[in-house]
Amino acid sequence: MARLDLEHLARQTMNDANLQREVLRIFEQQMNDKMADLACAQGSVKELAHSIKGSARGVGAVDVAALAEKLEQADCPDPTLIAQLGNAVEEAMEDIRAILNL
Questions:
Q1: pTM of model > 0.85
Q2: Is 42 in contact with 97 (CB distance < 8 Å)?
Q3: How far apart are CA 53 and CA 21, in angstroms?
Q4: CA-CA distance, 28 to 96, in Å (whole number)?
């Protein structure tokens, strides 16, 4: 699977490179906050997963969105799935840091 769908991101931002960078910065901050909440069991896992899914879809983080959707639909929090989601988020963040030159 692709970690970031850059064509999707370009469509979402009307090919505006500055807007893409800003959206990616916001996504990065959101993921830091939401994954920390998930790790500490702050809030509903389903609600956090839903929020992560929506944010990930917005920037084209397809792996993150798919795993978040699985977590959202799970009957109970699955530690393995949460770990997989964390790994996918980290991989997407690596791509984002490369794009932002961080």
A1: yes
A2: no
A3: 20
A4: 8
